[in-house]
Amino acid sequence: MADAAIDPRELLPPDEPVHLLDPDGTYHEDPEHPIDLDDAGLRELYRLMLVTRKVDREAINLQRQGQLGVYASCMGQEAAQVGSAYALAEEDWIFPSYRELGAALVRQVDAAGLLHLYRGTWLSDHDPYKHHFGLMSIPIGTQALHATGFAMGARLDNNPIVTMTYFGDGGTSEGDPHEAMTFAGVTRAPVIFFVQNNQYAISVPLEKQTAAPTLAHKAIGYGLPGRRCDGNDVLATYAVTKKAVDRARAGEGPTFIEALTYRMEAHTTSDDPSRYRTQAELDEAALTDPIARMRNFLQQRDLYDTELEEAVEDQAKEVASYVRAGIYDAPHGDPMELFEHVYVDPTGHFDLQREQLRSELDAGQGEG
Amino acid sequence: MAVTLAQAINQALHDAMSEDERVLVFGEDVGKLGGVFRVTDKLQEKFTEDRCFDTPLAESGIIGTAIGLAMYGFRPVPEMQFDGFTYPAFEQIVSHLAKMPNRSRGTVKLPVTIRIPYGGGIGAVEHHSESPEAYWAHTAGLKVFTPGTPEDAYSMMRAAIAMDDPVIFLEPKRRYWMKSDTTLPVQTEPPHRAVVRREGTDVSVFCYGPMVRTAMEAAEAAADEGWSLEVVDLRSLSPLDTPTMVASVERTGRAIVVHEAAQTLGMGAEIAARIQEQAFYSLEAPVLRATGYDTPYPPAKLEEFWLPDVDRILDLVERSLNY
Questions:
Q1: Residue B240 with chain A: CB contacts under 8 Å
Q2: Angle ∠(B32,B33,B34) on CA atoms, nearest 5
Q3: A99 contacts: CB under 8 Å, gap ≥ 6
Q4: pTM of this prediction exceeds 0.95
Q5: How far, CA to CA in Å, does A321 sit from each of A46, A310, A311, A314?
Q6: Catalytic residue among A267, A293, A295, A324
Q7: A310, A317 in Cβ contact below 8 A?
Q8: Of chain B's two ends, which shows fewer C-beta atoms within 10 Å, N or C?
Q9: Are B61 and A176 an interchain contact pair (Cβ–Cβ within 8 Å)?
Q10: Which pLDDT score is estimated for A1?
Q11: Are the CB atoms for B211 and B262 separated by under 8 Å?
């Protein structure tokens, strides 16, 4: 139950989002949000963001070439995803929406495998138990409840793990995230609700999504602290999430985080953003690009040189070509898989239908 | 010893929780109150609030968190307090509970048993007497069970909880107080099997859940007219035990399906289709359906005119025999 001693004002978001890095890479220390990463960790954040962008770009290319039916880009949101996911421990769980390529790469989920969702071969390809990374799926915000239930389970089991779920500004209008926050608040489940406010739900801008002062203001209604950060600042997303992780792990309950970012690409490759946003807006958003910002920071710290640039670029290219090969080489789907994994224990009519497909396939082979 | 259907389910939950500490019971008012029908009576007292707990009043939340709990490794048995309150959870049930095992290519198992008190006949207010079984039976990935006797209520509930597939467990609420002389624990036939409750030679009556008793009463009354009805309790609506249905029709040559739910695209439509697909030459008459009407469930004072009863069944028996 909520602790009556907590001043409700403590739950409100601060006036300004947490911001540690300027676009030119200047770092502002914030004692409330320390960065506990060594040089290798800082470079790793950069590497992960760059690889995410290359794979994202590759996926868009693959869609243009007809290899994927559709693709939902995360370009511009690399810092929000990588910084937050990197703040979790390996044993913690992530419950993503369909747009969390960056978080998936932090979890070393096979990127080519993830794209099967968009290729139409398999619905999902990774083992969630191996990566502690839930399945991507299309319904909006529904995964917030899975994260909450999982965290409730961990708490019942005295297992000190934390779960984090991602959804977008559009997701905050759906019912399930609200029910999830209600459950999490009441049970004090160790779950973090990480909202990437990328300003648009397909074509609908934030001001038509909510009348709340900020998305983070919603949290107080559930007894959750609402926090905000600059979502294009990977150090800020990392530090704010880390604080929420520590809080959850200490048994102090859930946190709602709003990361302010911008969706630089279309909602999906089927969308035409020129109908609802201007080139001027895009040009302005490009000035806050999270990857350039982190590169500037590393340069200022003398942590960046041509060697790193080449190594990271080479790796990013390697992953991108691996993804391309993985997609080209993947089987186009075994028809008999239609009947696999629907039931652990299938019986009756279902078996008859499976046999029907098998005989149709056998007949087809006979003709060939 | 006389046991009611509600007590049988309570005992099944109790025994499942005793045997497996991963079994969790939760929902609205299931804790201190013991459920509005007292089906979860004393479970919280015995197993603590960790394992039998009241949730916020949010059905999608109950099922969505059940999915997360199952992914973690628990075996949740959430309650939807009434049939008509299940609809806010529809998306979690059909988009995730039913599909996630398939989506994950078998790596995620969701051993969730959703308990739903369903059907009418208790004089309730609107939204408390729905028969939503066709929605669930239409959804691949779910199993749908509904017991018609206290013995089955116990045994099928134990089987459902032990299963690694998600199960929609429909409890016939007008039969919660129906008694059997039995001693629990009891093990009846596996849930995916239909059971011939009464053998007969003239007409097969297919029924399930609350209508099993009505069909048995109809068979008694029919005997007075000199008609021999065979009553088949389907027990599982998904999967449907087609061979048992077909064998019965091959014996009697006539079939009537009885259910409370509205007729159009109800279970009767599927049952009739399967019978004519597989037992066409045995049929002496078309398959007939005694069902609720294609209207919203009526106000309580009118429900007796809406619900299938012995007379509605006997009228169809006569029609079938005269065909």
A1: 348-349
A2: 95
A3: A72, A73, A74, A77, A166, A168, A196
A4: yes
A5: 20, 16, 15, 10
A6: A267
A7: no
A8: N
A9: yes
A10: 47
A11: no
